[in-house]
Amino acid sequence: MNLAANLVDSARRFGDRPAVRSGDQTWTYTDLDEQSARVAGFLRAREIQPGDRVGLQLPNLLQFPAIYYGILRVGAVVVPMNPLLKEREVDYYLGDSGASLLFDEPSALLPGHTPSYELTERSNDDTAVILYTSGTTGRPKGAELTHFNLARNAEVNVTTLLHLTSDDVVIGCLPLFHSFGQTAAMNSAFAVGASLSLVPKFDPGKVLEIIERDRVTVFQGVPTMYSALLNHPDREKTDLSSIRLCVSGGAPMPVELLHGFEEATGAMILEGYGLSETSPIASFNHPDRPRKPGSIGTALSGVEMKLVNVSEGVGEIAIKGENIMKGYWGNPAATTEAIRDGWFHTGDLAKQDEDGYFYIVDRKKDLIIRGGLNVYPREVEEVLYEHPAVAEAAVIGVPHESLGEEVAAAVALKPGMTAEPGELSAFVKERIAAYKYPRKIWLVDELPKTATGKILRREVQPPL
């Protein structure tokens, strides 16, 4: 099999239909297939062989899927990279993966290059993509995802979660260099002949325009994107009636935000969970089962999930199944540590209810231990989000001479709203146990985020 068959098959079936849009440009499936074949022709002329690694460092432009599938077409391995990476970071990705070539300019699609339509056959277990983890726990590691991992994860997403058809329009706000954007948006849309509307850089006003212009039916994003859209001044005058389904992942969505967005748009949000190492989707609130706001749902078809090392109802999520990576590229020690007896140990802490639904509590690394008592930042953040003035919040532990750690929080307020740190601290204190509320709160214009919009707790620093 070859993951690029997603595109090739859809080009055969839906050639004249729009495959991908960006700004005022639209490529049909025939156009995209041809551009992909031109990339394949270029690579074959450069004698790129099956299994060779090729870097791809572009934002969400038309050229991204063309190059991505062109690399796969010749049997090579895609190494996606964030365009914002600095030179030393790019050098690390290229050096660690052994990539022999890097596409970092949209002009890489040379019109004069002869298309090579041949699809190199690969085995299910051959590596298709090396996705470097965000490095939240150290230096990035390259998760090897196979053709089967990615094709199957997209198939399950299409058939059991999104129920996508060729009539759907999916908006690509999520970076395609990230696993969420690749699987849930690009690979899923192209598998069924749907249309993908790309957003090169997330801007809530622009996204609202695109939703109305392209009649977007499926919106996918991380919680900070939902918050930005909900609080944007143009939201109420934008026609969002075409949206039939919303998907949230990448970070836990505050329940207050979920309810607020659904009430404002009339579209249902399905919250799920996954990691780069799991292709990425592992669990979801399925559309044909009861939905539980605040939960990441239950395991996907072909996937098992359980909690290990459970203490007081909280344990680490372990995952097994069709979506688990082959391993970390060139790092057998890290692979052995992460995958034990076939189970991938995520480092994420969760609870499980009587119906089998999982609820993320926090990452093991983010746990705050205050005077010997465990404080989970997400629980405190949920309460902060209930305050009407709070747009974003990040709870961290700061050193304390006698307690070891004290609970602290950085808060960004909604436009036009006001609140004092003392008021916010008192608001939380009234709603959770006394040892959990943040004694120190400071206001910021915005919180640091990853390229996908996840709040970066590790980069939040209290003012001096």
Strand order of the largest sheet: 2-1-9-8-10-11-12-13-14
Overall number of domains: 2
- Cα end-to-end separation: 56 Å
Looking at the structure, what is the overall shape?
A: globular
Oligomer: single chain
Please identify which CATH superfamily of the largest domain we are dealing with.
Answer: ANL, N-terminal domain
CATH architecture of the largest domain: 3-Layer(aba) Sandwich
Quote the CATH topology of the largest domain. Rossmann fold
Number of strands: 25
Q: What is the radius of gyration?
A: 22 Å
Q: How many alpha or pi helices?
A: 12
CATH class descriptor name of the largest domain: Alpha Beta
Task: Please name the defining characteristics of this protein.
alpha/beta; Rossmann fold; 2 domains; 12 helices; 29% helix
